[in-house]
Amino acid sequence: MHIGDMEAAQYFAFVRQPWQLRRALVAIPLVLIVAISVADICAPPDVHLSPLLVVAPAITTAFAGYRLTALIGALAVGAHRLIDELQIGLAEDRYAQLVGLALLSIIATLMSFARDRNASELAQVRSVAETAQQALLRPLPDRLGPLRIASSYLAAAKQAAMGGDLYAAARIDGRTRVIIGDVRGKGLAAVGEAAMLLGAFREATHRYATLPALAEALDRSICRHLTEFPETDEEAEEHFITALLVELSDHSPVARMINCGHPPPLLVRRGQVRCLSCEDPAPPLGMWGLAPDDHPTHSFCFQFSDSLLLYTDGVVEARDRDRNFYPLEQRIAFWTRSSPKALVQHIERDLSAHCHGALGDDAAILALQRTPPPRLGLHLGDLVAEAH
């Protein structure tokens, strides 16, 4: 879902109308041509209604392609010519009206042609962007080990499929590792850094056994990337990525995380919401060389049926018309019994209503819920016995 794409989505939905609806709309300019022609023929000689025929091709441009617009324009010109023949012939002033109608019909056709071509090019660009997004920000599966997962990316920029926010998950030796991050900056540079970090995470998560070692490897990758591909803008020296790394074991309720300057996650347990803030978070990735080497891992209990919500600052920094921030923690209290998918959908709708569809920054949401492990070793007879 992309809040900034609402106008484009409405346009494409209109362009892709079923043929039955388009055929019904075509009746409008046809009825206008017939009605104006009949009214002009029946009107007194000093009343000329034929110039109103230009309305027909003008209306057609709003919903039809250039071929149908050209056809309606030709019918309007033909109707004008028929009116002239049935009345007084082609007088000089009527000839000027006919030429004007023909020119306006041609202009309407050209405008419709240009719009159709631009729409086709935009559709191709969006298709390429969506393909690139799926390659970089791969959709997460509904389940990973004992976890149920749901995610969402809300782009602030119109026509943007992906910005500087990112998330990914990977399985390794009975554990699930998750990352969510936010690149400082905007535009293609932010997308490039996000893609680099996602690739580094997917590769390094299988090479490093501990979470601190993984975080250090990601920091080195970012520093190397910024060195090899330096930015030329004034804020190049301040490029970094806030990130949250979480490791969840399949067989232990003890979860671990390293917060690299990122908004703290929210834990939902038995109808209560708790913010898992860290007193001494690590610096953002790309800035570890400026801080002490010791970056502790924080542990928390993640039990069965608990839910964990990860998000980027685009969620909590979204403002309404009164400049109030979005109260995420308070809003989640109403949806503590929701599944990850339902929780993400609730937040999407509520966030869009809060900021009236105008996000100031990209927003990523990732919800995880721990489920009990499947009961192994039960046979059909055991299940029948349990039923009784």
TrEMBL record:
**Keyword Membrane recorded:** yes
Organism listed in the record = Streptomyces nodosus
Instruction: Kindly list the residue ranges recorded as spanning the membrane.
Output: 63-83, 95-114
Q: Can you say what this protein is called?
A: Protein phosphatase
Q: Which residues form the PPM-type phosphatase domain?
A: 147-370
Coiled-coil stretches are none
Instruction: Mention one GO molecular function.
Output: phosphatase activity
- The answer to whether keyword Nucleotide-binding applies is no
